[in-house]
Design brief:
alpha+beta; BirA Bifunctional Protein, domain 2; 8-stranded mixed sheet; 3-stranded antiparallel sheet; about 35% helix; globular
Length: about 325
């Protein structure tokens, strides 16, 4: 457990005022991002059958919460880590056309998470996905979409400021783009997370691109599942967060793998056995649309805009007793 206590922290809003602000941010953002990206809200599963290959493998080491049930003998059901794969399947099933998309609420349990100011065992985010053409699988498409998301966050900042002027955390006016290799070349003496902190402190908001593949050193900036994002066309939206003196990730997103990128990235991780799974077979046989998509943290966005010190101030989860006690001593009121 690692807990950072900002000096002279003032939550500014009471618990009930915070709850009202959370509701306003969530309802307003999902409406505006839906309009901006042409997304339609769909219902989504909380769990999937392991045999479908639809669950997100994240970095490949996190264990999903799983269970069995008498009515489905032989099946193992897993609570989703994210809906990265399910969304692409849903776009095909619901007959979405090019430049149409969906968004949905995703709730996950990350039982192996190391708890701190930003990380909870409970994950809540807007998962979104949009159909594009194969020709639009480009860096230009990726950057344009990032700028659209950033514009919605900036507009929401103004709306939250109008309602809660004393609580709003000010965001930069623009977002900077950089690749993981450029970061490694610029700061070779730093770790990957230290590089993210350094570049975010300099620019305020950064989209770090090309996550998952190997750098020229043979190392990886960070892990990424090989079967949804194309590692050459993905990235994370990060903000410099002054209260905690570190980068705060709001979104992980990217253009999804086509049949060639899927084979290449599975081979890179020696995971070719996944090619036999139903989802992967659909990609190989070009039965799923080409898409761009990602996740946007609901609690993290609330935390960012309200200047909160701990994610537990904007979501209900479970925490170690010693963390709860220390937070309360410093005016960090956990829900």
């Amino acid at each position: 457990m690692q807990l950072v206590i900002p000096k002279d922290y003032d939550p500014k809003l009471s618990l009930r005022e915070t709850e009202a602000a959370i509701r306003y941010i969530r309802e307003t953002f999902q409406t505006e991002i839906g309009q901006k990206l042409n997304l339609e809200r769909l219902s989504a599963p909380m769990f999937v059958d392991r045999a479908t290959g639809l669950n997100d493998n994240l970095n490949g080491i996190e264990r999903p919460v799983s269970f069995t049930m008498p009515e489905l003998p032989g099946a193992t059901l897993e609570i989703v880590h994210s809906l990265a794969k399910w969304k692409r399947y849903a776009l095909q099933k619901y007959d979405f056309q090019v430049h149409e998309g969906l968004y949905t609420n995703m709730n996950a349990i990350r039982k192996d998470e190391e708890l701190d100011n930003l990380h909870s065992v409970y994950v809540d985010q807007w998962d979104w996905e949009k159909v594009i053409t194969k020709e639009e699988r480009t860096l230009t498409t990726l950057k344009q979409t990032v700028k659209q998301i950033f514009a919605v966050i900036k507009h929401l900042e103004h709306e939250v400021w109008y309602r809660y002027p004393n609580a709003i955390y000010r965001l930069p006016e623009e977002i900077h783009f950089v690749t993981t290799q450029e970061l490694a070349d610029q700061y070779p003496e730093l770790t990957a997370k230290q590089r993210e902190d350094r570049i975010c402190q300099e620019y305020g908001a950064v989209f770090v691109m090309q996550i998952g593949g190997k750098l020229t050193t043979g190392e990886r900036h960070d892990g990424r599942a090989p079967d949804y994002d194309d590692w050459q066309l993905n990235g994370d939206i990060l903000f410099w967060y002054e209260p905690l003196q570190r980068a705060l990730e709001i979104s992980s997103m990217g253009i999804r793998v086509d049949e060639d990128a899927l084979v290449r990235q599975l081979a890179d991780l020696d995971a070719q056995e996944r090619l036999q799974l139903p989802f992967h077979q659909m990609i190989l046989h070009q039965q799923l649309p080409y898409t761009i998509g990602g996740g946007i943290g609901q609690s993290r966005l609330c935390m960012l805009l309200l200047g909160k010190a701990h994610i537990g101030e904007v979501q209900a989860s479970v925490w170690p007793e010693e963390m709860l006690a220390e937070c309360e001593q410093h005016q960090i009121h956990i829900l």
